[in-house]
Write a structure and sequence with these properties.
Elements (H helix, E strand, L loop, with lengths): L1 E4 L15 E4 H4 L9 H12 L7 E2 L9 H12 L12 H9 L8 E4 H5 L12 E4 L7 H9 L7 E7 L3 E7 L13 E5 L8 H8 L1
Parallel strand pairs: 1-2, 1-3, 4-5
Antiparallel strand pairs: 5-8, 6-7, 6-8
Length: about 210
């Protein structure tokens, strides 16, 4: 038997029984190296899924929450007329939210870091807490910093959260966010809110 993964490396893969072959999409598709072309990766999974034995794809955490590839695969497979079974996993985003409560109890925004990195300004209200996640968050950190600096001051404190057996918090000033080093594995970025009432939504409430 075999399982496929779009991860370049993950500690959990070492626990796969020796009777199961682990195959990497990055070994099959050289053009996917160093980037996250979700459409290409999902198309490859759909191609494998057309085989009589189907395909098993391993994603970190919960496949529909902790890796954006999961939802893309489900959509692509459904469009192709293939049956899909999603096996729930423990969400590491959920673990972090539980540890941050009650700070994030109200108006929490959870965004794919790659999507935020392509924005000009943060797509979430700055007077509410936000979490940025993604399996390759460190690859986009410079662009994420650029986006956040459009709204947040350089001395605003953000928190890098690592989930690897335990949840670890590493606060740092926004201006130093690029100096995070290796963010491999399951890492999130928690952005505490600015002062209440500083968002466009809050100003709209005042006008109303």
């Amino acid at each position: 038997s075999e399982i496929w993964t779009a991860l370049r490396d993950h500690g959990a893969l070492a626990d796969v029984p020796p009777t199961v072959t682990v195959r990497s999409l990055h070994e099959q598709d050289a053009s996917a190296r160093g980037e996250r072309d979700l459409g290409r990766l999902a198309a490859r999974i759909v191609e494998l899924g057309r085989r009589s034995e189907g395909v098993v794809i391993a994603l970190p955490g919960h496949p529909l929450l902790d890796d954006p590839l999961g939802a893309v695969i489900v959509d692509a497979a459904t469009e192709a007329g293939l049956a899909v079974r999603v096996i729930d996993g423990q969400s590491y985003v959920g673990l972090v939210v539980a540890r941050l409560s009650p700070q994030v109890r109200n108006k929490l925004s959870v965004w794919d870091g790659a999507a935020v990195s392509r924005c000009h300004v943060p797509p979430f209200p700055p007077d509410a807490p936000a979490i940025l996640w993604g399996p390759a968050l460190g690859e986009y950190i410079d662009d994420i910093l650029r986006v956040l600096q459009a709204t947040y001051p350089p001395l605003h404190e953000v928190v890098i959260v690592s989930v690897d057996g335990d949840v670890r918090f590493s606060p740092r000033l926004l201006k130093n966010l690029s100096d995070v080093g290796d963010m491999a594995g399951r890492s999130l970025l928690y952005i505490p809110p600015l002062v209440e009432g500083s968002s466009v939504e809050a100003m709209q409430d005042v006008v109303a």
